[in-house]
């Protein structure tokens, strides 16, 4: 699952809250195999990114992901979005595959 966070009212407040509050809360979700985050930078020409931040959560299957999200810890993490995601959040579900280089 990928979560894309729109530009918040305050990037500093978003980043601080995400690191200090949301991550510890979301770390209570059991069943995740991997979790990555990325803060987007402007394009080389200075154009601001469409999204401020991205989180990717990995499990072995969609069914496993749904168990994680349906757990009390998953519900708590989802409800926490209203506390910091002032730019909104888009949830994308899919199965990742590796492309040979």
Walk me through the structure.
Helix content is 34%, strand content 20%. The chain is α+β, with helices and mostly antiparallel strands and 101 residues long. It has one domain (2-92): 2-Layer Sandwich (Alpha-Beta Plaits). The longest helix has 16 residues, at 11-26. The model has no long low-confidence stretch (mean pLDDT 96).
Task: Kindly summarize this structure in a few lines.
The chain has a single domain (2-92), classed as Alpha-Beta Plaits, CATH 3.30.70.
Structural Rg: 14 Å
Number of helices: 3
What's the architecture in CATH terms? 2-Layer Sandwich
The global form is globular
Q: Determine the CATH topology.
A: Alpha-Beta Plaits
Oligomeric state as shown? single chain
* Major β-sheet annotation: 4 strands, antiparallel
**Helix-strand string:** EHEEHHE
Main-sheet strand order equals 2-3-1-4
Assigned CATH class: Alpha Beta
What is the arithmetic mean of pLDDT?
96
Structural class: alpha+beta
Distance between the termini: 23 Å
| pLDDT < 50 stretches | none
How many independent structural domains? 1
